[in-house]
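Dear Dr. H.,

I hope your travels went smoothly. While you were away I took the liberty of generating a structure for the chain from your last submission, since the lab meeting agenda had it listed for discussion. I wanted you to have the full record in hand beforehand rather than looking at slides cold. The sequence, exactly as received, is reproduced here:
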Amino acid sequence: MVDTAADKKNKVRAVTEDDIGLKVLYEGPAPSTDIIAIHGIGAHPDDTWCKKVDTGSSTERYVNWLSDEHMLPAVVPDARIMRYGYQSQWFGDEAIKQKASTVAQRLLLSLRRARKADPVRPLLFIAHCFGGLVLLRAMVDAQRSEAKWAGIFQSTTGMVFFGTPFRGAGGLDQAEMLRAAHSQYEEDQVQGAVLNILPPGNESLIDLVTYFFETRQGKGDASIACFFEQKSSNVGAILQGSRIKKFVVDETSGCLDQSESTEKYSLSRDHFGMNKFGRPEEEDFQTVCEVIEKMIEGSPGLIRTRNQGR
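The corresponding predicted structure, in token form, is as follows:
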């Protein structure tokens, strides 16, 4: 979700113009489903889905589970898998004033362009942390203006959320994060507005989740899977390198209320590793794949149900 200033310099690649927007990672010969992955704050849109794997040598190898031929493409060979990238640096030389509604608008524009040839192809989303809030906003806007965003809401049949703070990120102290950033950067190099939606109980977040639930009518709703972290994260790394272990997004915040179309699952990972998989044999990866497979298999029937109700 959010990286330390030190990590930003040493580990997270800067997001360039070439990284922004939709990028096709895999495309089957005759794709029947579009899968879109949305990253969180302070993350690179490609690296955020990569896990470092042991090669038995000194050579480093990173696996992107969205594109590696042995990972998700092997599970859903008839899909087109894309990731959406946006500038999310909130401090440093490349800091940008950003908010969920702005990213959601740009996402919808990109989807409309990319799906022009087949706007009714079933659509499934994967989102990590703040990316999930972007997805909620996009769904609300797409449902409210279906003529403008033709096919997007109506074709969305599945949403997979990794550690999305639907009720706030209780493990992160916004004031402390801002103090840490201001201690290392100039005033104009810190754009903390994007953090305003993260504190538990804030009105903007409550309204967003409420508006999203208003789009759900029961019969024909898109399937939702909420994955929550079982391990605490070193959130102290955000606060100038100290070691403080906390749950960034706990189970209560990271899961929407369960229903016929909404399920929740645990992952034996921390917040910053729950969106990364390196081997097909990983149990957590297999669970995620089963969820995605089930959503894709149910897509045709779900869309038929919606069309009958229109």
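Two observations you may find useful: Confidence is low (pLDDT under 50) at residues 1-10. The first helix runs from residue 5 to 10.

With kind regards,
E. W.
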